[in-house]
Amino acid sequence: MDDAPSGGITRRTLVGGAAAGAAAAVLPTGADAATTTATATARKARPRRTADVIVVGAGLAGLTAARRLVAAGRSVIVLEARDRVGGRTLNADLGGGKVVEVGGQWVGPTQDRLLALAKELSVETFKTYQEGKAVLVYRGSHQTFDLSGPLGPIPPIPDGILDAATAIQKLDAMAATVPVDAPWTAKQALEWDSQTFETWLQANALTKGGRFLVELGFSSVFAAEPRDVSLLFALFYMAAAGDEQHVGTFDRLINTAGGAQESRFVGGSQRISLLAAAQLGRRVVLGAPVRRIAQAGGHVTVTTDRASYRGRHAVVTLPPTLAGRIDYLPALTAQRDQLTQRVPMGTVIKVQAVYDEPFWRGDGLAGYANGDVDPVHLTFDNSPPDGSPGILIGFIEGELGRVWGQKTVAERRAGVLNSFATYFGERARSPTRYLEMSWAAEPYTRGCYVGFMPPGVLTSYGRELRRPAGRIHWAGTETSGYWNGYMDGAVRSGERVGAELLGGA
């Protein structure tokens, strides 16, 4: 079976990343389209509901903000374009009460706010499977290595280990000087924001193996190419991989044990949003893509296709590029609008093969592999806590995601299973089920894992990320200081904007 039914308030089949029939609900792709749609729908008679705060988006950021506001006695309405909650988290039903995540899934040390929310909702965690040897396939050579060794998950490429370690040490030292809440104020911000990560890497990694290792880690974090991303933004992202007591590092971004991939959630990460939404009840409205937000007379009016909602404030939790597709009256400032034009989303296709059992474990393998075998350069064992069924997960990221996203499902399936078989043997070619999710094709996400910034954006427009536009406030993981781009960053942003509104509402 080659699909992935999602768990949630409703169920749908995921193939190629979009729900069947979703085209009719796609957000307008430009300012003219947004204005035309909003104008046409505004002429229709529609019911109006009121609340103190209208939240746009029922992912972790929006639901966290709503819970905080409701707890303080404010009335809230949460509007969600999709037919489900959870944003970039999504569970696929495997049957028998088991699920696997086709969106964001991992949690690790210093992601304290996400862990606190999960604990409050009684969602437990379990460790990512890491027992046994890891696999490296590089330039035609196949070998295994010990994950418990001094290098951890860094593949033992002879001409690259020392080179990559030296480059990462330099990056960590630079990142330590970047303030997470205002990276544009770093002493060397202009210099670093005037070049790409690729430019820096070419000058500082001296071997092909060293560059391969750093690039492998980079693409697994950003789902983009080093040439796409500002060096300053990359350094900020590393600095953000910590908390108020712990300095962020590149290793914490890429590591499993002690890093961002250390643990998973029992029942899948979307379960957190499902439980939070259940507590909010009828305050959460699904199938309600927001077309227009108007400010007038000390209030906001938020317009969807079927209804309008009036409140004292609005909170928009969408990634900047999607937030820019809403029609605003009056128009946003030029600086804010320019920001939304300059924050593209990463490109990733998350692929998984399901087997009767995790056969690689019997071969003494952890299910973790790195390599230069297209299209999948990175895999994990993604099996449920009890190890049944066995699941291998892989990622098609950055340029590979752009190229392979244009192929058919059958072509991707064949390519993915060839990668898995190269890493783990011929049994990997015969799964009982194949799942994939192209987040770039998802109409209300248009990419993952994060909206990243090319050169010049942070220093010129970064101040607009969190600056309110009148009665419109901004949240979402892209607005977070710590753990920007992660579930923890989304939760932190919801807490921040909730406190912002409670302090000034």
The CATH superfamily of the domain at 30-88 and 269-343 and 452-504 appears as FAD/NAD(P)-binding domain
The radius of gyration over CA amounts to: 22 Å
Name of the CATH architecture of the domain at 30-88 and 269-343 and 452-504: 3-Layer(bba) Sandwich
The assigned structural class equals: alpha/beta
Principal-axes shape call? globular
Uncertain spans: 4-45
- Overall pLDDT metric: 91
Helix coverage percent of residues? 25-40%
Give me the number of helical elements. Answer: 17
Approximate strand percentage: 15-25%
Quote the CATH topology of the domain at 30-88 and 269-343 and 452-504: FAD/NAD(P)-binding domain
Number of strands: 21
**Main beta-sheet strand count, sense and barrel state:** 8 strands, mixed
CATH class of the domain at 30-88 and 269-343 and 452-504: Alpha Beta
What is the distance, rounded to the nearest whole angstrom, between the alpha carbons of the first and last residues? 51 Å
3D structure, described in words:
The protein has 17 helices and 21 strands. By secondary structure, the protein is of the alpha/beta class. The strands form 4 sheets. Strands 2, 3, 11, 12, 13, 14, 15 and 21 form an 8-stranded mixed sheet that branches. It has a 7-stranded mixed sheet with strand order 9-8-17-18-19-16-20. It has a 3-stranded antiparallel sheet with strand order 1-4-5, with no helix packed on it. Strand 8 and strand 9 (141-146) form a beta hairpin. Helix 3 (112-120) packs across helix 17 (487-504) and helix 4 packs across helix 8. The longest helix has 18 residues, at 487-504. The N and C termini lie far apart (51 Å). The model is unreliable at 4-45 (pLDDT under 50).
